């Protein structure tokens, strides 16, 4: 059996490859060429086990992402199967893959909703996903500058990311960054909103990607109230898992504004014409992992 490690994942695929693979997946979902298995979680003795996946019909593969959560840490694994004969094609370590796919899907959404180049991007957070989003949004000149918002002093980190990705990165406080940005990306584990929803300028894209739990939220009701649409990967899963949506007040109209990314891609001009704020809320779907695992499998198997 072929096992593909995190190191092999990192060596076999780039962020640019991941963006292309995720765009192709959501185009397939827009054509109903795939089925999603929503996340299932079980909990006991202070730990949890989660599973989500799906069938990528057009690619001829299916699989699942399985992972424990212990002391707040994850460890992802993805078994990939053939739709032709049910054969186990490979098992892919999912930590490096998850880093890529989450940021790649956000970039796909941004290219649809608030296309570049030359955008000012605020990133809230200083962890793995914050850096992955800087990498994804540095591609092809999408971002001309990043403002980094972190709970601690992130000056050294900003300098490191600027050197690594070739785009200016400076630190800012939460309020100033929200008022300055064309695109706001929240990649934190915050339980409460990170900025006042009155601050972003009309036309700003707010991408809330840090939480997939119904009891936490990164943006407030004002952001949802101002949103002309709320783009999600899968409406049912987002409505159940996205804390912003679960806790949204009735006056936000949030549930009525949900639009799935796959359905939106063929009519991106509609999204670009929408007024006030645009929101992308990610919770992560297992079919993203299956599709990217297959892309990696094809690369490794052909090497």
TrEMBL record:
Gene Ontology terms for molecular function: hormone binding
Gene3D superfamilies per UniProt: NAD(P)-binding Rossmann-like Domain, ornithine cyclodeaminase, domain 1
Pfam families for the chain: OCD_Mu_crystall
GO cellular component: cytoplasm
Record protein name field: Probable ornithine cyclodeaminase
